[in-house]
């Protein structure tokens, strides 16, 4: 794939990723990272997504911080922030293909838990919340993919879609702050990252607006089904089998 074709692929991916994030409060990275990472590299894709998502979702984050329940968000956020440095280390040290296979496997496992574990109740112990948060933080630092563990957790609480979405936006604000600090300190936010952010930002923003409008039309059942599909598609997209078709 030529550079121009790769860039067009990334722009289209940013639009879909933004719409998914705007609708559900998560899922943007599940689409963006495997598909953009396949034509560029995970080390370029991860900080690029962090930059554009941080800037463009700020109004949604501020609104969510007023609507979320902080006593639910804080324990998971604490575990996530503590584990982000481990994830950033994995991003720098682990072979990208190995990392993507691991992410795909985890996504499938979490989806099976959601589908087959109907009636599953999320654990309420502090240790469980810290552990789930830590897993999310590690995935967030490694590939901006902190969503699936906390999505599975909050869907297992039986709460309505609006509260789950607000909690997710607040939680991701905490992990983004931790990841951003780690990325900057390790020199991962480069001029190349900023240039790509400027190119992909506009279509990601269009997707966010479209997704947010779509959420207002959806009910709790539709929200849950779409969350299932996002995780399923992310598992498929994370598998590196399509790389030979996407790369030169």
From TrEMBL:
<dbReference type="InterPro" id="IPR052017">
    <property type="entry name" value="TSUP"/>
</dbReference>
<keyword id="KW-1003">Cell membrane</keyword>
<keyword id="KW-1133">Transmembrane helix</keyword>
<keyword id="KW-0472">Membrane</keyword>
<keyword id="KW-0812">Transmembrane</keyword>
<feature type="transmembrane region" description="Helical">
    <location>
        <begin position="196"/>
        <end position="214"/>
    </location>
</feature>
<comment type="similarity">
    <text>Belongs to the 4-toluene sulfonate uptake permease (TSUP) (TC 2.A.102) family.</text>
</comment>
<dbReference type="Pfam" id="PF01925">
    <property type="entry name" value="TauE"/>
</dbReference>
<feature type="transmembrane region" description="Helical">
    <location>
        <begin position="226"/>
        <end position="246"/>
    </location>
</feature>
<feature type="transmembrane region" description="Helical">
    <location>
        <begin position="128"/>
        <end position="146"/>
    </location>
</feature>
<keyword id="KW-0813">Transport</keyword>
<feature type="transmembrane region" description="Helical">
    <location>
        <begin position="73"/>
        <end position="91"/>
    </location>
</feature>
<feature type="transmembrane region" description="Helical">
    <location>
        <begin position="166"/>
        <end position="184"/>
    </location>
</feature>
<dbReference type="InterPro" id="IPR002781">
    <property type="entry name" value="TM_pro_TauE-like"/>
</dbReference>
<feature type="transmembrane region" description="Helical">
    <location>
        <begin position="97"/>
        <end position="116"/>
    </location>
</feature>
<protein>
    <recommendedName>
        <fullName>Probable membrane transporter protein</fullName>
    </recommendedName>
</protein>
